[in-house]
Amino acid sequence: MTDDVLVVHGGTPLEGRIRVRGAKNLVSKAMVAALLGDSPSRLFDVPKIRDVEVVRGLLGLHGVKVTDGDEDGELVFDPANVESASTDQINVHAGSSRIPILFCGPLLHRLGHAFIPDLGGCHIGPRPIDFHLQALREFGATVDKTPEGLHLSAPNGLHGTKFALPYPSVGATEQVLLTAVMAEGVTELRNAAVEPEIIDLICVLQKMGAIIKVHTDRVIEIQGVPKLHGYTHRPIPDRIEAASWAAAALATRGHVEVLGAQQADMMTFLNIFRSVGGEYEVTDSRPPRLGDPGQEGGIRFWHPGGELKSVALETDVHPGFMTDWQQPLVVALTQARGLSIVHETVYEQRLGYTEALNSMGANIQVYRDCLGGTPCRFGRRNFKHSAVIAGPSKLHAADLVIPDLRAGFSHLIAALAAEGTSRVYGVDLINRGYEDFEAKLADLGAHVERP
Length: 451
Ligand code: EPZ
Description:
Layout: E1 5-10, E2 15-19, H1 24-33, E3 41-43, H2 50-61, E4 65-68, E5 75-78, H3 87-91, H4 104-111, E6 113-117, H5 130-138, E7 142-146, E8 149-153, E9 162-164, H6 170-180, E10 186-190, H7 196-207, E11 211-215, E12 219-223, E13 232-233, H8 239-251, E14 255-259, H9 267-276, E15 279-283, E16 298-302, E17 308-309, E18 312-314, H10 323-333, E19 336-343, H11 354-359, E20 363-367, E21 386-391, E22 399-401, H12 405-417, E23 420-425, H13 437-443, E24 447-449
Parallel strand pairs: 2-14, 3-13, 9-10, 17-19, 18-19, 22-23
Antiparallel strand pairs: 1-23, 1-24, 3-5, 4-5, 6-8, 7-8, 10-12, 11-12, 14-16, 15-16, 19-21, 20-21
Helix pairs in contact: 1-2, 1-7, 4-6, 5-6, 6-7, 8-10, 8-12, 10-12
The protein binds ligand EPZ.
Ligand EPZ binds next to helix 1, helix 5, helix 6, helix 10 and helix 12.
């Protein structure tokens, strides 16, 4: 643990330009989709993050040859020799990521059976997989839960089904997509999640030969096909990372240009950012032409000076305010005048990180009540899932231990915004989802060092 610490000398505004690559929450799923093809796939702009390494390792164990392509960030997947892996080999990846659960459908199609290790991912509540298993059973899979993990088989093949999710879960929607595309017959999924990363996964699957219709009102219809081929895809940029740097610019009274950030996927965030008093400017991409090298688009975010304003926001499924945007932005809200309110409706336990902010001088109270009108599953179940942030508060340095990925980035922002020298322990966790974050901090003029 002592090696895994970053010393942050706070109080300097972040200034400069960084670039975001393909969205973590699409890239890892597109990698799994490559298993379904009968020819190689190419994925561009893949960030060098831990989640990608985990999926790469699991694909390798199942016989998918993964190589680096010619372009920086390009990966090539050759699924010609898909094979079973031993439970011992797979268990090496136990607890490291949530993505293994998405191997179920593709492995059942390719091998007729699947073993899924104990899942990991961020500790932000119980994170059950009941919707996934219910969906897989609807397709005809049998699921055997054992102490070492899940054993699945499909003795009679997988068949299309009509199914409604109890909640528009991102992962369960992806599970259904990755299973239905090659199941026999038609699948109709109601109450599906429609996050931009899911639409991009649908684009990947369509490129592979799938037939998928996205209807209004969260209904997705999938016509199963007997075979799929490889894809070539450039993913949507990471809108969570982009918003994290935007929040860091605001909290440190800085100015950060995020190349690659896309307005369309971030509209809800941009509205809140402006309501708080932050400013931004969108630059569109321009393709290269004769005599013109072109321009990579992005969004510049900055603190215009003066005081920030308090806001009320509720996290929600798309097109609502993403739950992953909440933690970084709350650090900036500690600097806003008045009372800001955050009602977290996606995860029941995603406000624990506020204790660390309070230890730095923030004034944040968390409540079990629903402080907002969005229908929520947590109010009656006694979870502390609403926060009231009173500001502005002067933040001072502290020793912090990172609890999970997004909360970890918020701790980092708080340390950068605070006066004095903080020690942030467990920072390697941030590499799960933020590529080269230390190099990017250096590019933005942050004073950070490994002791
Ligand atoms: C994805 O997680 C993302 N992870 C999360 O990002 C993100 O916060 C989340 O979607 C919401 O946008 C990846 O894409 C790898 P869910 P996922 O299924 O798919 C409940 C990050 O930091 N639920 O939409 O696991 C669940 O408990 C991560 O990048 C069930 O009850 O999220 C939660 O309350 C963190 N049963 C809600 O649904 C189930 O079987 C939404 O979860 C599945 C989910």
